[in-house]
Design brief:
Elements lengths: L3 E3 L9 H7 L13 H21 L3 E4 L13 H9 L6 E8 L7 H13 L4 E6 L4 H6 L6 H17 L4 E4 L4 E5 L13 E5 L3 H10 L2 E4 L4 H17 L9 E3 L2 E4 L3 H19 L4 H4 L7 H11 L8 H6 L3 E4 L1 H26 L1
Helix pairs in contact: 3-4, 4-6, 7-8, 8-13
């Protein structure tokens, strides 16, 4: 098991009452609530935290991309990754990931990621995402084109990394007379690729076919197990047995000296995260055409129906987060790994 430090970089000074009144911290929450001086302090504090995580021995540092939201202040994750690229000494550097369908020129990602891969001397992990539905409102991109734009952008980037240029690209969404990016990636043929998802059936099948790493984002633990089972099943259908390195779980962990202290200290922050920062208008989250009916049904089933306001106890009972003393957290992680390995063995045995 490997541990990565994943930072969302939220604007933690946000007025929670104002978010509640607006109904969401996304898209329509006015940036009049943002204070640049406080934001500057947060950026430096968060970068310090990530550099310290590298000193502590984490296997990697992870940043990601979100737009027009107090939930995360990284609309251009490459800026944060660039700030970290020469500072980290022990772990890998990952962006999970860039929202490819939102871009008019995916070659900028090919160039950006190649630069980071070269600067880190091959210590970089490339992440690609379609972006959540709300971000199609922020960019004015047709959500019905999301899947097609993502797959074509991905294919263009991979070809740009693996085939010498210049060559011409004539696709449905992107057209280039010359594709010849400098620099090329440090890793051969390219950096390892991670694909985060909320549990979309389409995404799981596609990642298994490509033999990339699938990363399940925040979800109840039972749902995570089911998703990993499905991924391994899809891998077997594709003619191979998936490796543990192909499955990742984005989970929030909080550790204090005792379970009681952990619960006491995390309650206001966890409940603010679940009920204010993470809350999105369903119409914004799943705009028409963004996902297939099968994928929407699976995501809803995976995440379950939420109460009007989630309590810490409700979140903990579902296994969405892990908190407690060092021993408690260690035991929960070990139990999760043992359960996953046991089910993987049973699944492979039944398939064979």
């Amino acid at each position: 098991m490997k541990f990565f430090n994943f930072h969302l970089m939220p604007y933690r000074h946000a007025d929670l009452d104002a978010i509640d009144k607006n109904g969401s911290a996304w898209v329509t929450f006015s940036n009049k609530h943002y204070n640049p001086e406080k934001g500057a302090g947060l950026y430096h504090e968060y970068l310090d935290q990530m550099e310290f995580a590298d000193e502590l021995g984490f296997d990697g540092l992870v940043v990601n991309e979100h737009h027009q939201t107090a939930y995360g202040m990284m609309p251009i994750p490459g800026v944060m990754a660039g700030a970290l690229a020469r500072r980290i000494k022990n772990g890998k550097l990952a962006i999970l990931g860039r929202a490819l369908p939102l871009l008019n020129n995916p070659l900028t990602v090919a160039e950006e990621y190649a630069m980071l891969d070269v600067i880190t001397r091959g210590n970089f992990i490339a992440g690609f995402v379609r972006g959540i539905g709300a971000e199609y409102h922020t960019f004015g991109v047709n959500p019905a084109e999301s899947l097609g734009r993502f797959q074509e952008a991905h294919d263009l980037i991979i070809k740009a990394w693996t085939q010498p240029g210049p060559f011409e690209w004539e696709g449905k969404y992107y057209k280039f007379k010359y594709v010849n990016p400098w620099p090329r990636p440090y890793q051969n043929p390219h950096p390892p690729i991670f694909i985060p998802s909320s549990g979309s059936l389409d995404t799981i099948k596609w990642v298994a076919q490509k033999r990339y790493t699938y990363c399940q984002t925040l979800a109840p633990f039972d749902g995570v197990i089911k998703t990993f089972d499905l991924f391994r099943e899809e891998a077997l259908k594709c003619g191979y047995e998936s490796s543990p390195d192909q499955l990742a779980w984005s989970n929030a962990i909080f550790v204090r000296e005792t379970d009681e202290k952990a619960r006491r200290d995390i309650r206001p922050h966890l409940e603010a995260y679940m009920n204010e920062f993470l809350t999105r208008d369903p119409a914004m989250m799943m705009p028409p055409g963004y996902s297939s009916v099968a994928s929407i049904k699976r995501v809803r089933q995976l995440r379950g129906y939420r109460s009007v306001r989630q309590t810490m106890e409700e979140v903990l009972d579902k296994g969405i987060v892990i908190i407690g003393s060092p021993n408690t957290v260690r035991e929960k992680l070990a139990a999760a790994q043992d359960r996953g390995e046991r089910l993987a063995f049973e699944q492979l045995r039944d398939y064979v």
